[in-house]
Amino acid sequence: MTTDIATLTRLYRSLRLIRRLEEEVARIYPSDKIKSPVHLSIGQEAVSVGVCDPLRSDDVVSGTYRSHASYIAKGGDLKGMMAELYGKATGCAGGKAGSMHLIDMGNNIIGSSAVVGTTVPIALGYAFAMKQRRQDSVVAAFFGDGATEEGVFHESLNFAALKKLPVLFVCENNQFAIHQPLSKRWATDRLCERVETYGIPAHHIADSNVETVRDTTAAAIEDIRAGKGPAFIECVTYRWREHVGPDEDYDDGYRVRADVEAWRDKDEVVRLAAALDPAARRTIDDAIEAEIAEAIAFAEDSPFPEQQELYANVFAN
Predict the structure, then answer these.
(1) What is the structure's pLDDT at 2?
(2) Within a 10 A sphere around the Cβ of 142, how many other Cβ atoms?
């Protein structure tokens, strides 16, 4: 696998931006300035970056409650995201939704949801509408391994295959549904085999290598745009922090620190950083720090929503 320096640079910048932003979110969180629960993607960034890099601006992303990474990788507004976490009126959802319900329709990021599996059929409906309009855009639907246990996941696979919908199903398999490992939930770990029974090509990526994810996604998208129907990618990954919140949880009894060390040793942020010219990398890193600082300052300086906003955009008086 050979990747040109321009692509490596772009991938690194996206990885580094997500990592550093979430580290700052973790740092700020105990101060209570952030007004919503946060589900961090630290350790999982390569999946979102690898999938979103080949997407066009008119392609659509559907994320989960752990969607900081896909939001940023698709080009979501950083200031709007941080302001939303702070519960401010300038947030991407007006300060009403918080971390688990990010949205940026200007960059074709449809609203995420806190309910497991629910964004899969929403992505499906969006893909169905695009096909009806004869668009050649693609929807990338992100979800965790826990969502594959929901009935709506299988219903969505069947409908997408039946109608040859332009949707890329992306399973971020971090191997836990909150605190329950796969071994206690799945009779077999052959998820791709189960997906293939619907006639959907399925790809298993065991190490979250960002270049492999990118290349696999690019090839799948080419087939989807050609009208061949949906595709599925399972990316095995690992979250470094607790399920929800800024801390670690290796003393909670359901996993141990040794489990994460193998993943830290192959950290994609570090690997790509080493592949770049040190001076060029420092320039990127400095620019990222400035961008994050600006987004945080924007969030802190923004006003909270006015009281009348409680009554805006509701279905009944």
Answers:
(1) 61
(2) 27
Instruction: Enter the DSSP assignment of 281.
Output: H
Sequence-ordered strand ranges (E) for the chain: 60-62, 109-110, 139-144, 167-173, 176-177, 180-181, 202-205, 231-236
How far CA 266 is from CA of 44, 60, 71, 234, 259, in Å, comes to: 12, 29, 24, 18, 13
Q: What are the residue boundaries of the structural domains of the chain, listed by start?
A: 5-302
Task: Assess contact for 248 and 220: CB atoms under 8 A.
Answer: no
- H/E run at residue 70: helix 68-73
> Would the pTM count as exceeding 0.90?
yes
Token representation of residue 245:
């919140």
Helices (H), 234-306: 257-265, 268-275, 278-301
Position 180 pLDDT exceeds 90 = yes
Per the DSSP assignment, residues forming a β-bridge with 109 are 61, 104
Average pLDDT of the chain to the nearest whole number = 96
Segment 118-136, tens digit of pLDDT: 999 999 999 999 999 999 9
Token pair in block for residue 180 = 């329950």
pLDDT at 1 over 80: no
Measured between alpha carbons, how far apart are the two ends of the chain, in Å? Answer: 58
Length of the chain equals: 317
Q: Quote the percentage of the chain above a pLDDT of 90.
A: 94
Amino acid found at 33? K
Cα distance between residue 60 and residue 279, in whole Å: 34
5-302 has which CATH code?
A: 3.40.50.970
